[in-house]
Amino acid sequence: MAGFWLGEKASIRGYRLVGYDTVGSTNSEALRAAAAGDVGDVWFAALRQTEGRGRRGRGWDTVHGNLAASLLVLPDADPAVAATLGFVAGTALSQALARLLPQGAGRIALKWPNDVVADGAKLAGILLEAQKRNDGRIAIVVGLGVNVVAAPAGLPYPATSLKALGAEVSAEATFAALSEAWVDCYEAWAGGRGIADILRQWRAVAAGIGAPVAVDRGGDIVRGIFESIDEAGRLIVRADGGKRIVITAGDVYFGSTAGALNLGDR
C-alpha cells in the first residue's frame, strides 16, 4: 500500500484505502471501481501518477513523492447537488494543508473553482468526475493532487510545494491529514443539506474576493471585481457599470496575470 494510512476518524467511519507507488491515474482506478459496483467510500492514493488529468483534459502527471488521491463516493443527492462536492474537497484540502505548514510559511487560499494556492502559487488541484452506474446511482470521483516535494516545471502560472514552503512532510502523512479533514467536511455537507455552511467556510479562505479578476471562458474574457460565490457555488463578477455576471465555468486570473489577458475582451 506504499505506506499510506487513513486518519483515525476516517478509519473509524469505515473508509477504505488502496495505495500505490506508481499508477496511471487514481481517478481512473476509482472510476473502474465504480463501474464494477464498488459501494464507495474508498480512497485510491499514489506517490506518482503517469496518466493523470486535470480540468478540460489537461495532463496532470506527478513526480515521485507528490500526492495523487481520488475518493469514490456515492452521495444520496441529485447530480447538481453532488457537483458541490468540489467545495467540500477544497475546504477539506485547504484545512489539511494549513495544518501541515509551519507557522508563517504562507497563506493557504482557495482559488475558484478548483485550486489551492499558497501566497498566490498553486499548491494543489481538484478534479471531480461523475459516472452513472448500472444500478442508476451516480458515482462521484473526487480527485486531488498535491505538490508535496516539488512543483511541476514549465507551467504558465506560479506553483509551489509543501517542501518549498518549509513543510518536511511526506505524501503519506499529507494523505492521512486530508482523509481526516474530508470526514468533517463531508459530514457537514450532509448530502447537500449543509452546503451553505461549506460555502461559508470556502469563502472565508477564498483568494481574491473584492479584487480585480479576469475570467477566461474559452476565449471570452470577463473582467471586473470578484464579488463572491453564490449559493450554487458560481462565481459572481461585478463588471463596469455595476452589472453582475454569473460564471459557471472558466479559468480565473488575478493581479498582473489578469491584466495580461487580452483575448476577446469584453
* CATH topology-level name of the largest domain: BirA Bifunctional Protein, domain 2
- CATH class label of the largest domain: Alpha Beta
Write down the overall mean pLDDT. Answer: 91
**Number of E-type strands:** 12
Identify the CATH architecture of the largest domain: 2-Layer Sandwich
Order of helices and strands: HEHEEHHEEEEHHEEEEEH
Any overview of this molecule?
- The chain has 266 residues and is α+β, with helices and mostly antiparallel strands.
- The chain has two domains: 8-204, BirA Bifunctional Protein, domain 2; 212-260, SH3 type barrels (Roll), CATH 2.30.30.
- It has helices spanning 8-12, 26-35, 79-82, 85-100, 171-189, 195-204, 255-260, and strands spanning 16-23, 42-49, 67-73, 108-111, 115-118, 121-132, 138-146, 212-217, 220-229, 235-238, 244-247, 251-254.
- Strands 1-2-3-7-6-5-4 form a seven-stranded mixed beta sheet, sandwiched between helices. It has a five-stranded antiparallel beta sheet with strand order 11-10-9-8-12.
- Helix 4 crosses helix 5 and helix 4 (85-100) packs across helix 6.
- The radius of gyration is 18 Å and the shape is globular.
- The model has no long low-confidence stretch (mean pLDDT 91).
